[in-house]
Amino acid sequence: MTQNNLYRNDPDLANQDQAGSNTGINNPYATQIHYSAKPKEEDTAYTKSMKKHFSFFGIGSFLYAIFYTFCLYKNASGITYPFFVAGTLYYFFFSMQKLGVPCKKDSIFYIVSIVLLGISNCFTNSAPLLFMNKCGIFVLSFVLMIHTMYQNKSWNFPKYFIAFCQMTGTFFVNMYRPVSDMVFYFNVEKKEQDGKKSYFLPVLIGITITIPVFTFMTLLLASADAVFSNILSDMFSSFHFSTIFEILIIVIMIFFCSYSVYATLCMKNVDEEVKHYGIFDPIIAIIVTAALSMLYLIFSVIQILYLFIGNMQLPDGYTYSGYAREGFFQLLAVCILNLMIVLVCLYFFRENKVLKAILTIISGCTFIMILSSALRMFMYIDRYNLTFLRIFVLWSLAVIFLLMTGVTIFIYKSRFPLFTYSMVIVTVFYICLSFAHPDYWIARYNLNPAHIEYLNKYDVADSKRYLSGLSADAAPVLLDQEKNPYLETDPAVFADTDESSEYLNDRTEYTMTENSGINEISISWLKKYYDRIDELSQNTRIRNFNFSVYRAGKYL
What we know:
Number of strands: 2
Strand content: under 5%
Low-confidence stretches: 1-40, 489-493, 497-522
Number of helices: 26
Structural class: mainly alpha
Largest sheet: 2 strands, antiparallel
Order of helices and strands: HHHHHHHHHHHHHHHHHHHHHHHHEEHH
Shape: flat
Distance between the termini: 96 Å
């Protein structure tokens, strides 16, 4: 075979030989060593499968976008939320099955946790809980997708952080993929038809043509017949062009986002290997942590002597109760920073026995700070009653205590599954908080007769103002005459009448009831809460049905 015939059959070989000639090497095998051209990055098997099954993923993402909009459009806490979560999980695993990705048995924890948070959304009306529920669902869903697509058993915190950043960037890059994959799919279908007719493109074109033609004909018929026009007006009286436009925008955005998520997973561009980042000299960490540990030891001794034992002389102008009720937020911040400092030292600095000892001291001092902050918070609550933030601080301290325990174990046992342990601790504790309905316990604690008597001497106006802003979760207390001494026995107080309004407006001065001794400063705060719950109950429909609002409506 001549050289020209060889090049005609294999053009790549001709390019390789030309590369060798350009370097002065005539040996045809020399190009195997010298070849430096970067090979074109090819699609993964999952990406090829996704393009091949575009009819499934394209239509599936579009239907999912409609499902998402129906469940969540202006509906943050309705009965549709758990159905949305269940539907999302079903679509995810069905799509993974289509790609040939098996479901792992140990994914059950993430699945159950996500479903429970979805259920919690329709059982509470608390805005902070609803926000944190959605954040929890997002984080757990991300970890579930990683766990399903990758072998992540040995992944740690830095690896998950890098994977999150990398996948986020890839997600935005893949936003164009629905369009490019559709073009690719139709090109392949056109080449591989072989006499077989594909109905996907005709159906898509038919739907695209039908929408404007149908709309135009409907408008013509409505202008031609008054009865038909009135019927249409009654049917679409609740629809507005702005609402329709918002719905269309949401559907389009969710369609592209949904498809981009699966395109990102199919690329599998996150390296599964866990790299060790402990490359820094431990002397650096030892100097920094040694100084902090000395400071923390002095602070811990002061906490033990002054706060826990309480038998030391305080500075002038300080009382023991006043000293105990300050600084808990600062201590909470220090505890969080200590947790991060220990993790950074363990992951990014080389192993060293002295560093481990110092980190153990910092962990021990952190436990003392946690107890100190918790004790201060309890004394502060005893003085100023409960709020959601104060409950959340106590919850955070309990979680940090357990996380710090896991970190202390991890200092000496590097194989300890710290990330999995942390995920379980935070998830389980938060699910308990979400289903506990903190607003209920806030109202019940603050309206305890002993606390009311104390508040009447100090901060009654602000306390009532805070109670009036609680969610429907607190209705079983605030609207129950047996639990709320501020409730009047006369139902006309809550009647929507001019007489009731005048009655409420007149009650702007402080009065004292002879029997209960309750200082009643303008009962309008309770009227405000009552009206808000009444409005929520009246605006409840099937789609936005919420069990907390439904239960609160029974007290109206």
